[in-house]
């Protein structure tokens, strides 16, 4: 059998080859963060004026935040008619919305040159930049590129009191859309945790139609906070659609799991061009990732290798922290700087009842749950990295605070905790993951790593991918956390970075890293292979070494040579699955 390269396998696993359907408008994606780029191939300057009509009734969404939390304030900010806004949201014209309430905003959308837009104006406040106005004040309903394009004022000349034009992102249906009875397009503001399918369900829209409207596909459907997603509507939106949907139903029965598991089989088999699933989850991962030239490199993983950790950097911590907090408003996404009283109130003065694990506490801020982590060391490095990332599979940092030598980081709350609580569970407390949940979690982690390796500038390596650093939200979607050990992926002139400071967790570190200090994205790929094995077997990697008394690659090779694939597979897989995984996994020997 000829095996693909590590890079090729990783890319194939993440992205199946599929031609994109011609779109009504391109999705803006991460282009909103590059204010200097005026290229409109991703609609950063606005949606193209390619609809059936030059003007139309359109709708926006907006999440109420003081001082923009009343009908009159939101109407004035977004140039909407207050009577229409109050009517469609089923409130009075004097109503005040709860903080973070999703509000529907009717606007007149028309062509201005080559772009659709709804026009409003804004008076610049002290400290404003085009980026802050687009993302903080208007939440992504405009972009810094569009603001620069329509206002002949340099950022440094944005003086307080200056009135500027704000083109709001809207569009009119194309002929193809009107042919299928689409009457309106709604510009939905994406927030952390949103998916195209969940947004479509909220507005009773077919997911495929939403994907096509934004130039996306099932294989390329990642969306980011502070961006707009066009939702094609056949009917007027209603206030009932602004209410958060109910939680998902309980896990399916074993019979339905088998059915949905087979769906995953067909998806993955198609994505990998006919390679059988066992080859994917077995031979490819371990023979490509784990097997190395016949050195004694693998043995290092199971030896008592010293597990090095970064030491806190204490030099001028207080001064550096103060300087960092003063400059934080200029960082992308403009993190909120909390005060200690706010965090004390959120955690009931860091009460034991709010304690989660380690130095992490559960808190409630503005009615929303959050995870508050007390840290020390070179924390600004982690803050700067997380503050440049907008990805649903990477934990979201929302705020910071520094007090008495300690940093406090406020993260989104992952209701189901770390992955290791679910795959190593032996307490009989009902924490069990189905086959489909495990596959989805692994795909989420792979997608998050692909973003970290290929779409952050510069590329980064997490260096500590393991089950305890994968957090699960209320829908069991995975989020990569704990970036304190993250490093740049490349050295000078694109070469591998070298280090003598080996950091990470024993059992997850690649041999070439342990031996030579090579730092590259392959470190995370190797750790992902270990994570995959643990997730499928329900055992920690150290236990697997001890139980099998052989290298992980040898374990797989032995199974590949076994005549009875089903027997080997049952021995290999987590017994808590009770056989509820696709039997096609053992078909490799045919």
TrEMBL record:
Residues 120-166, 186-231 form the LysM domain. The chain crosses the membrane at residues 264-290. Residues 329-590 form the Protein kinase domain. Residues 238-258 are annotated as: Disordered. InterPro entries: Kinase-like_dom_sf (IPR011009), LysM (IPR018392), LysM2_CERK1_LYK3_4_5 (IPR056562), LysM3_LYK4_5 (IPR056563), LysM_dom_sf (IPR036779), NFP_LYK_LysM1 (IPR056561), Plant_RLK_LysM (IPR052611), Prot_kinase_dom (IPR000719). It is a single-pass membrane protein. Keywords: ATP-binding, Cell membrane, Disulfide bond, Membrane, Nucleotide-binding, Signal, Transmembrane, Transmembrane helix. SUPFAM superfamilies: Protein kinase-like (PK-like) (SSF56112). Pfam families: LysM1_NFP_LYK, LysM2_CERK1_LYK3_4_5, LysM3_LYK4_5, Pkinase. GO terms for molecular function: ATP binding; protein kinase activity. It is found in: Cell membrane. GO terms for biological process: response to other organism. Its main location: membrane. One of its GO terms (cellular component) is plasma membrane. It comes from the Eukaryota. Residues 1-23 form the signal peptide. This is Protein kinase domain-containing protein. It comes from Carpinus fangiana.
